[in-house]
Write a structure and sequence with these properties.
Layout lengths: L2 H8 L2 H8 L2 H8 L3 E6 L13 E5 H8 L5 E3 L2 H6 L10 H31 L2 E6 L17 H11 L10 E3 L11 H10 L16 E9 L3 E11 L1
Parallel strand pairs: 4-7
Antiparallel strand pairs: 1-2, 1-3, 5-6, 6-7
Length: 232
């Protein structure tokens, strides 16, 4: 940098303040300011849920969450206005009561999610194509049948449902006829599969036809799934 350029740079108050600032001051300026908010409705990407008190970047709160009514600032006045105790000031008894409420709310959310999935799958049929032996509905020994892993993959590809690792799939080995199935019969089939929710299913369907599978969900809930294995 030339001497003239240096003099022009130092002539600017902003430039002088930046040059004279200590490394610690520069580091502090680079850290985004965080503010506490009270969540009014579930935040995008699961970063906070209704009733939570969380810290977010000030700009995110000011420019998006507050204007869009997702949250309000966690001030003493706002806590009093909505009749809520600030988690930073609550007594041990109040904390236990809050945790109990949150646990109940979580259970309600889990049940709600399970019911939504059950309703969605109730009128869906997962279709899997397989070759069969000539003039037969049997899948050849050298070809892969239909098992829990195949069902998981097809769920993701066809119905855009990605199961968590703990959400196990169990396939009932006996074929069924969807046209003749009633809801109470499906529920009975779910019971016949047992309570082995943590075990990997080793059942493999090796014939074309209709099958019933069970998806274990969080909170000991489950959702039935209709699987149809058809000729490729």
């Amino acid at each position: 940098m030339s001497f003239l350029s240096a003099r022009m740079l130092l002539a600017s108050p902003t430039a002088r303040s930046r040059l004279l600032a200590s490394p610690k001051q520069i580091s502090c300026r680079s850290i985004s300011k965080l503010v506490r908010i009270i969540v009014n409705k579930d935040l995008p990407n699961g970063s906070g849920y209704e009733g939570d008190v969380v810290k977010v970047k000030a700009g995110y709160a000011r420019n998006y969450l507050i204007p869009q009514k997702y949250a309000i600032y966690a001030t003493r006045q706002n806590f009093m206005r909505i009749n809520m105790v600030d988690p930073d000031e609550e007594t041990p008894e109040q904390k236990l009561a809050r945790l109990a409420r949150e646990a109940n709310q979580e259970q309600d959310q889990v049940l709600k999610a399970a019911n939504i999935l059950r309703k969605y799958l109730s009128n869906k049929v997962l279709t899997i194509y397989r070759d069969s032996e000539i003039k037969s509905d049997v899948i050849p020994p050298d070809r892969r049948g239909v098992d829990a892993n195949i069902i998981r993959d097809k769920l993701s590809f066809q119905l855009k449902i990605d199961l968590e690792s703990h959400e196990k799939v169990h396939l009932k080995p006996d074929r069924v006829n969807f046209a003749e199935l009633e809801d109470d019969q499906i529920e009975e089939m779910m019971k016949e599969l047992g309570d082995n929710k943590d075990e990997e299913c080793t059942t493999q369907g090796r014939r074309l036809g209709d099958y019933i599978a069970r998806i274990w969900l969080k909170g000991d809930h489950f959702a039935p799934l209709k699987v149809s294995v058809v000729q490729r």
